[in-house]
Structure to design on (762 residues):
C-alpha cells in the first residue's frame, strides 16, 4: 500500500526513469527519442562489453602464440599428434574470433533497417560457435573410429600424454581468463553500479533537487522488495553469452584433453589397449555435448521469440488486469532480443471513462517495477 | 501440388500470381484478433485471451482440417515409444513435402547403415567416413522434418508467436551446415593439393553414384525450389528451399567425386583438387543467399519485401496529422510474409485515440503489416 501511494504521487518520476541515461528528450521523458530505449548503448553496457572484448582479445593472442609454438614443435619433432592439436587450437581461435566479432557488432548503433539494434548478432554468433563445437566433436569421434579401423598406426602413449597435458594447461589458463574473472568482477558490484548509474545520470539530466530526493527514496524502497525477485535475473544477466560460449569451448577442449591424457597414459602403460583411446574420446565427447545443451536451449528460446523463462506471463497478465481502469489484456507478447533485454507488446482495454494517459503510466510503471521490462509498447483501446 | 494450408497465416500474393489459386485461402485468422474493432465472427469464441480459454481443436472456420502434430498431453512423462508413434503419425498425416522428406531421410539412413557395415567389414576407411558424413546430413534433414511437423502447433503461453519460426531456424541450420560443408571441401582440396601423390579412393565411386541417385531423387521432389534466389512468401518456403539446396549440394559433391575419379583415370593431374575446389565454390555460392535471408529474419532486420521508402512515407503521413508530434516505428519479420510492428505516437492531450489508431492501422495494413501495437502517448 505504501508503495502504491508513493507511486501515484511520483508518476512522472517513474516514467522518467524508464529510459535511463541517454535517450530521454528534455521535453517528454516518456518517449524514446534515441534509436532505442534501454536498447541504446548506455555507458555501463559498453563498459561491460569492453571488458569482455578485452578478455577475448587476450585469449585469442594467447591461443595464437601457443599455436605457433606447437606448429614449430610439431615440425621439429615430426609428429602428427602435435600438428592436429595445433589445428585444434586454430579452430579455437576461429571460435573466439566469432565471439569477439559478435561482441563488437552488438555495440553498433541501430539503423532504420535494423531498428532494434544489433544485439541479436550475439545470439547468432553464439549459435555458430556451438555448431562449431559440435562439428569438432563429431570430427574427433570420426577420427577415433578411423584410428581404430586403420590398425596400422603406431600410437606413442608418451607423446599423446605430453601433448594433451600441454593442451590442458593452456585451456585451464584460458578458462580462468574467461570464466573466473567474469563472475567476480560483476557479481554484486555490478548491481549497485547499475542502480547508481541510473540515479546519478538522472541527476544530471533533470533539474530540481526535489525530483532527486523523491527519486532516491523510491528507488531504495523498491530495491528492498524488488531485490529477491530481480536478483536471480541480474545474476544470470551478467554472463555475456559470447564470453560464455567461448568459455564452453575452452571447457570442452580441456575435457577432451583430460580424456586424451587418460588414453595416452593407459596406452603408455599397456600399448595393446588401443581401444581405450576410442572409448575415452566417445565418453568425453558426450560430456562436451552435454555442457552445450543448456546454452542451445537459451539460444533457441530467444530465436523463437518465446517468453523468457524468468518472466511469468500469467502473473503479469493477472497483475495488469487488477490495475485500476484496466478491463482486459490481450495480444500479450513478451520476447527477448538477447539474453537480458526483454520487450513487451500488448493491447490493453480500458473502461470507457478512464483517462488513457494515467492508465498508460500505471501499466508501464507496473511492468517496469515488477518485472523490470523497460521497453514496452502498449496499445490502449476503449471498451 | 496439393498442400494443406495452415489457417493461421494469411498471405497476400500479388495480382497475377496464381500459384496457389486452387487452394482455398482462409478468410479469417484464428489467433490474431482484430486490432481495433471487435471480431465479427463467432465460430471461434472471441479469443482475446490466448490459451486460457478453450480453443477448439478442429476449428470450424478452417477450410482444411489441420491435425495437430503432437497431442498436447497433460502428463509430461511420455515414453519414447509414444513419442516415436506420435512422430510417425505426424508424418503420415503431414503434408506432401513432409512425406517426401521422410522418405528421403529413411533412404539416406538405410544407405548409410549399409555403407557403414560394409566399410567396417572390409576395413575401408573411406566408406566409413562417407557414412558419417551422410549421417550428419541426415541429422540436419531430420531437424528440418521435425520443424515442419512442430511448426503447425498453435501458439501457447511460452511461444506467443507460434512455432513457425522453427522453420526459419531449420533453414538457417541447413545453410550453416552447407557453409561448413563448402569450407571442409576447400580444406580437403588444399590437403590434396599439398600431398604429393593422390589419395583418391576409387572404390568410393559406387557409393558416390548411389548417393547421387538418392539426392537427385530428392531434388526432383523439391524441384520447384531448385533455384538460388527465391522470394519467400511463406515460412515453409524457406525450409523447403533449404532442404532442396542441401540435396542439391550433396549431389554436386557426389558428381564432383565421380568426375574426379574419371579424370584421374584419364590421367589428368590434380584432378581431385580441381573438382573439389569447384564443388566447394559452387556450394558456397548456392547457399549464400539463403544464409543471408534467414540470417536477416533471425536478426530482426526490417522486412525486405517492403521498401524502406514505404515505411518513411507511412510515418510521414502519420506525422502529418495535426495532433501528432512524433512517430517512432519499428518493424521486424517473424517469418517471411508476416511482419510485426510497434509504433509509438506522441499526440496532443485530449485527442480521441480511436481515430488515430484506425488511421495508423489503415496505413500499415495497406503495406501488408498485420500485427501492430500502437502506443499513444499524450504530451
Amino acid at each position: 500500500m505504501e508503495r502504491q501511494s508513493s507511486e501515484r504521487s511520483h508518476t512522472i518520476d517513474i516514467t522518467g526513469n524508464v529510459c535511463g541515461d541517454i535517450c530521454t528528450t528534455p521535453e517528454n521523458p516518456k518517449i524514446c527519442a534515441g534509436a532505442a530505449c534501454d536498447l541504446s548503448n548506455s555507458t555501463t553496457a559498453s563498459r561491460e562489453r569492453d571488458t569482455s572484448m578485452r578478455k577475448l582479445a587476450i585469449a585469442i593472442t594467447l591461443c595464437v602464440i601457443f599455436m605457433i609454438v606447437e606448429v614449430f614443435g610439431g615440425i621439429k619433432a615430426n609428429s602428427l599428434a602435435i600438428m592436429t592439436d595445433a589445428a585444434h587450437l586454430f579452430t579455437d581461435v576461429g571460435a573466439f574470433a566469432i565471439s569477439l566479432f559478435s561482441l563488437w557488432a552488438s555495440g553498433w548503433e541501430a539503423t532504420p533497417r535494423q531498428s532494434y539494434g544489433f544485439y541479436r548478432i550475439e545470439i547468432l554468433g553464439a549459435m555458430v560457435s556451438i555448431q562449431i563445437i559440435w562439428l569438432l566433436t563429431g570430427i574427433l569421434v570420426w577420427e577415433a573410429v578411423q584410428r581404430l579401423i586403420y590398425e596400422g598406426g603406431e600410437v606413442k602413449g608418451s607423446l599423446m600424454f605430453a601433448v594433451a597435458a600441454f593442451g590442458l594447461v593452456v585451456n585451464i589458463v584460458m578458462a580462468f581468463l574467461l570464466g573466473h574473472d567474469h563472475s567476480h568482477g560483476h557479481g554484486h558490484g555490478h548491481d549497485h553500479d547499475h542502480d547508481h548509474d541510473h540515479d546519478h545520470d538522472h541527476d544530471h539530466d533533470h533539474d530540481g533537487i526535489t525530483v532527486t530526493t523523491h527519486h532516491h527514496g523510491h528507488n531504495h524502497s523498491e530495491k528492498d522488495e524488488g531485490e529477491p525477485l530481480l536478483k536471480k535475473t541480474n545474476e544470470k544477466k551478467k554472463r555475456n553469452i559470447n564470453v560464455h560460449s567461448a568459455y564452453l569451448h575452452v571447457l570442452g577442449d580441456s575435457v577432451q584433453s583430460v580424456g586424451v591424457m587418460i588414453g595416452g597414459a593407459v596406452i603408455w602403460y599397456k600399448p595393446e589397449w588401443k581401444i581405450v583411446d576410442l572409448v575415452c574420446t566417445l565418453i568425453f565427447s558426450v560430456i562436451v555435448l552435454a555442457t552445450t545443451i543448456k546454452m542451445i536451449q537459451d539460444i533457441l528460446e530467444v530465436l523463437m521469440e518465446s517468453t523468457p523463462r524468468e518472466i511469468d506471463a500469467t502473473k503479469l497478465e493477472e497483475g495488469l488486469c487488477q490495475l485500476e481502469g484496466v478491463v482486459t489484456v490481450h495480444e500479450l507478447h513478451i520476447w527477448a532480443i538477447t539474453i537480458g533485454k526483454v520487450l513487451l507488446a500488448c493491447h490493453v482495454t480500458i473502461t470507457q471513462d478512464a483517462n488513457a494517459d494515467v492508465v498508460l503510466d500505471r501499466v508501464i510503471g507496473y511492468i517496469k517495477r515488477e518485472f523490470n521490462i523497460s521497453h514496452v509498447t502498449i496499445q490502449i483501446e476503449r471498451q | 501440388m496439393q498442400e494443406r494450408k495452415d489457417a493461421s497465416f494469411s498471405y497476400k500474393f500479388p495480382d497475377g500470381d496464381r500459384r496457389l489459386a486452387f487452394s482455398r485461402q482462409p478468410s479469417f485468422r484464428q489467433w490474431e484478433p482484430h486490432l481495433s474493432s471487435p471480431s465479427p465472427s463467432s465460430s471461434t469464441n472471441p479469443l482475446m485471451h490466448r490459451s486460457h480459454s478453450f480453443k477448439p481443436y478442429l476449428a470450424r472456420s478452417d477450410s482444411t482440417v489441420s491435425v495437430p502434430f503432437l497431442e498436447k498431453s497433460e502428463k509430461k512423462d511420455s515414453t519414447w515409444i509414444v513419442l516415436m508413434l506420435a512422430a510417425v503419425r505426424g508424418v503420415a498425416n503431414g503434408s506432401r513435402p513432409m512425406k517426401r522428406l521422410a522418405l528421403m531421410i529413411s533412404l539416406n539412413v538405410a544407405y548409410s547403415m549399409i555403407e557403414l557395415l560394409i566399410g567396417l567389414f572390409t576395413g575401408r576407411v573411406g566408406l566409413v567416413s562417407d557414412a558419417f558424413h551422410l549421417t550428419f546430413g541426415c541429422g540436419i534433414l531430420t531437424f528440418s522434418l521435425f520443424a515442419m511437423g512442430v511448426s503447425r502447433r498453435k501458439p501457447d503461453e511460452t511461444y506467443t508467436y507460434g512455432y513457425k519460426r522453427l522453420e526459419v531456424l531449420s533453414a538457417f541450420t541447413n545453410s550453416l551446415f552447407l557453409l561448413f560443408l563448402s569450407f571442409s571441401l576447400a580444406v580437403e582440396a588444399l590437403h590434396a593439393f599439398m600431398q604429393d601423390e593422390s589419395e583418391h579412393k576409387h572404390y568410393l565411386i559406387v557409393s558416390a553414384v548411389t548417393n547421387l541417385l538418392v539426392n537427385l531423387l530428392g531434388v526432383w521432389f523439391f524441384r520447384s525450389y531448385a533455384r538460388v534466389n527465391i522470394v519467400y512468401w511463406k515460412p515453409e518456403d524457406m525450409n523447403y528451399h533449404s532442404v532442396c539446396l542441401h540435396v542439391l549440394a550433396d549431389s554436386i559433391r557426389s558428381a564432383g567425386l565421380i568426375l574426379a575419379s574419371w579424370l584421374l583415370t584419364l590421367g589428368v593431374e590434380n584432378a581431385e583438387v580441381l573438382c573439389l575446389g569447384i564443388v566447394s565454390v559452387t556450394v558456397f555460392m548456392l547457399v549464400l543467399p539463403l544464409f543471408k535471408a534467414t540470417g536477416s529474419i533471425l536478426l530482426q532486420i526490417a522486412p525486405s519485401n517492403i521498401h524502406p521508402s514505404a515505411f518513411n512515407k507511412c510515418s510521414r503521413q502519420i506525422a502529418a496529422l495535426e495532433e501528432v508530434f512524433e512517430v517512432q516505428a519499428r518493424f521486424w519479420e517473424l517469418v517471411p510474409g508476416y511482419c510485426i510492428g510497434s509504433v509509438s505516437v506522441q499526440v496532443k492531450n485530449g485527442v480521441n485515440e480511436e481515430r488515430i489508431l484506425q488511421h495508423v492501422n489503415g496505413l500499415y495494413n495497406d503495406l501488408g503489416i498485420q500485427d501492430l501495437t500502437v502506443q499513444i502517448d499524450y504530451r
About this structure: The first helix of chain B runs from residue 80 to 92. The two ends of chain B are 55 Å apart (CA to CA). Residues 1-10, 25-67, 69-76 of chain B have pLDDT under 50 and may be disordered. Chain B touches chain A through 58 residues (CB under 8 Å).
